[in-house]
Amino acid sequence: MHDFNDCLLVSGLEDPGYCGEPFMWADNHMSQRIDRALSNSKLFDLFDPIKVTNLTRLCSDHCPILVQMSNKILIILKVALNS
Fold first, then answer.
1. Which residues pair with 25 in a beta bridge?
2. Which of 27, 39, 72, 77 pairs as cysteine with 43 (C-beta 3.0–4.6 A)?
3. pLDDT band at 79 (very low <50, low <70, confident <90, very high)
4. Percentage of residues in the chain with pLDDT exceeding 90?
C-alpha cells in the first residue's frame, strides 16, 4: 500500500472519498477496497463537487462505482476477463 500511495503522490492523483459499500471486492471471507475512483486537481476544478458512490455488488466479485460530477454521471464498471 505504501508504493500505491507514493504513486498517487507523484502522479498528482487524489482519492475523492466515497459513500456506500466500504469494500469493493470480496472473495470467500475476505473483503478489501481495491477498486477506487481517482482524480487530479484539474478534474476537481472543472467538475466540483465530485461524489463517488460504491454500489451494491450484483453478479461480480467487484462492486460498480458511480461517479457524479456536477450534474454529469459516469458509471465505471470493472469487468474481469478470464484468459
1. 32, 62
2. 39
3. low
4. 5
Cα–Cα dist 17/50, whole Å: 9
**Distance from C-alpha of 52 to C-alpha of 16, rounded to nearest angstrom:** 7
Using CB atoms within 10 A of its CB, is residue 54 exposed (0-12), middle (13-18) or buried (19+)?
buried
Q: What's the one-letter identity of residue 4?
A: F
Tell me if the bond preceding 49 is cis, omega within 30° of 0. Answer: yes
Q: What is the C-alpha to C-alpha distance for residues 65 and 73, in angstroms, rounded to an integer?
A: 11
Question: Measured between alpha carbons, how far is 42 from 1 in angstroms, rounded to an integer?
Answer: 25
User: What's the count of helices (H) and strands (E) in the chain, helices before strands?
Assistant: 2, 6
Alpha-carbon separation of residue 55 from 10, 15, 22, 43, 80 (angstroms): 29, 17, 10, 22, 17
Bigger pLDDT: 62 vs 68: 68
